[in-house]
Amino acid sequence: MVIINQIIMETLLITIVPSILILLFFVFSDRFKEPKKIIIITFLFGILITIPAGYLNDFILKTFETESELNNALLGGFFAGGLVEETLKFLVLYFYILKEKAFNEPMDAIVYGVCVSLGFSLMETIEWSKIYFDEYGENRAVAMAKIRSYSSNILHAGCGVIMGSILSKAFFQNKN
Fold it and tell me: Is the dihedral of CA 125, 127, 14, 114 positive or negative?
């Protein structure tokens, strides 16, 4: 029991620390600091949207899965993964961040895009680690956590930067 608790703690640290470090890098890179409350809420929204993302991804995969490997790869990688997840992250930015008074300069969209993306990535990595723990045991779960803690965080943060950049350009340069 003690060994399992130690492995769970190690896995949680492996998944949480990189997300927080990348988030802090972007937060502290902003010359005009954003309110901590909004950063935390945006990060939590990223965690929360993993719930509808899971259901939507499951629905897409179960509804449109075929015998074709190409079809299933497109479903999992593009439609169920990318399209659903990035749309949900964008909706957080659109319906929550754009209404905040603190959203007042171009870098803000990037910071908040990274916040929502890393919240999502964190929860997704924890979920994948749990799946691997249940199906394959602790060693594979720790390995999955290590791989995803970097690859998933970098991918999601990068998508947050791109989404924030586009949103920033649309909001601040094209107000008319």
Answer: positive
Distance CA 76, CA 58 (A): 9
Note the pTM of the prediction, 2 decimals. Answer: 0.91
User: Residue 114: which H helix or E strand, with range?
Assistant: helix 106-136
- 34-86 pLDDT per residue, tens: 999 999 999 999 999 999 999 999 999 889 888 989 888 888 888 888 899 99
Find where tokens 């990037």 sit: 110
Which one-letter amino acid corresponds to residue 42? T
Q: What is the pLDDT of residues 89-98, one digit of tens each?
A: 999 999 999 9
In angstroms, the CA 116 to CA 39 distance is: 9
Whether 138 contacts 4, CB under 8 Å: yes
